[in-house]
Amino acid sequence: MSRLEARGLTLRRGGRPVVRDLDLSLRAGEVTVLLGPNGAGKSTLLEALCGLLRPASGQVLLDGGDLAALEPAARARRIGLLPQTHEIAWPLEVRILVGLGRIPHIGARGLSAEDARIIDAALAGAGATDLAERDASTLSGGERARVMIARVLAGEPEWLLADEPLAGLDPSYQIDAAETLARRARAEGCGVVLTLHDLTLAARIADRVLVLGDGTLIADGAPETALAPDVLARAFGVRTALRRGTEGLSVDVLGRA
Amino acid sequence: MSRRHLTVLSLLALLLAALVAASLVTGRIPLPLAEMATDPSDPRWAVLVQLRLPRTLLAVLIGAGLGLSGAALQGFTRNPLADPGVLGVSSAAALGAVLTLWLPAAAGWVQPAAAMAGALAGTGLLLALAAGGSSMTVFLLAGVVLNTVAGAGVALALSLAPTPWAVNGIIDWLMGSLVDRSLPETLFAAPFILAGLILLSSTGRALDALTLGETGARSLGINLDRTRILLAAGTALAVGAGVAVAGVIGFAGLVTPHLLRPLIGARPGGLLWPSALGGAVLVLAGDLAVRLIPSEAEVRLGVAMACLGGPFFLGLLLMLRRRLG
Lengths: 257, 325
Fold this sequence. Notes:
heterodimer; A: 257 residues; alpha/beta; Rossmann fold; 4-stranded antiparallel sheet; 10 helices; globular; B: 325 residues; ABC transporter involved in vitamin B12 uptake, BtuC; 14 helices
């Protein structure tokens, strides 16, 4: 199983330290959810974990090798990132947009029949098949989010890092997309790392929850332990209740701590 | 490549071929090729080879350079306003060429080299500004300022011109023209423009990926520093060499990608070669038009392109504004 690790990782953004001396070992085959208040450094950490942000100190290791030493195209074939801002600069047909996810694999050649099959599967996985012929510039926020999930799925990365992939989705699509991502991890052995804001969604989807606060890890473990009220009080400054129902865990936010 | 893509490319190639043929026989001296073919010593062959041929070749090369660099700059900046003219690259090239008028008896290659250096300085400055996530507003503002400053520099050179001959030369650069360019001049510029076209066309994948923004493109394994260098060097060669020979010709770079997007889609990499062909068609058509407009002295191509291109582009914007909105 592939491993993605951070060793003594310190990250700066605009000169300001955002993540400090962080050690972390992620395992493929599970869904890791990264939580933390606004500005805690979640997006910055994701960017560093996929090799786009050079660490101020420390390193990111992919299967024991320094990620910074990997060729960009080789890195992109193994680690896919879905950024938080769903920028789509041109009015492309959705299928063409999703096909951009194949770029690390195709180099200068065109898309093959096999690529087309993968793109269709990605569209289906993100519940975006019905959007395939649409002009991407006419999509609503939620439709755009589904298409962007399809885009990152189309790269078939071993590691799929997604920044708020479920924000703005209708509940039914949230469930579908969460299931697709979980299946990638548990059935296909992909490493899935997500940032989320919805605590209950995190509790339901995650195998492992990391809570980031003030540049360090406050908690790291199974949802039951990492989403405990004392952790969330420290991270977010809110009183919460962690409940276990027949449908799984849920987190109720009761008020300020 | 889709079938539609191929169809549009073939149609553009056919149109260009027809315009090339028309350009070779159109002008003050009519060239009835059928009649000339019977007599190889006909003096009109000299008109064909020494005047019409370089003029036609130059129009095609310069147009291709403008179209391709416009498409590449628009793709890179993700902004439909980008183009070597709007961003001041052409003016910077003209300023580079004009400044060599102060050099005592410079060798023939100095002026084109200075034009390319001016274009390179201009694009380099702009693309350096576009690096590091500064907004595209900053980029466009910088381009507008570069255009103004380089334009003012040329105007200043005009008022300080060392000789009346230099004044004429400077006006040539300000208002591009393809009249009386020699075959050696054309053959000198051609390899530079072609090299620029090749460099620019190699950025296609990166431009496609940039549809997803800089972070998205980098996550797909695109090396944006490399893209930036290819773009700066390619634009400097393609536009700089063109300006060195023919002066500033506007609009083709800006308009061509806009004309093609409704036909073949907006994928930036897919627009590159069609824009090269489209730019060549536009500039050659413009140059044919200035030859056909009945006037005492020929209307300058740069002026004609702006006069015809401007209102045309405004009309296009009105049609497309909902799409662009």
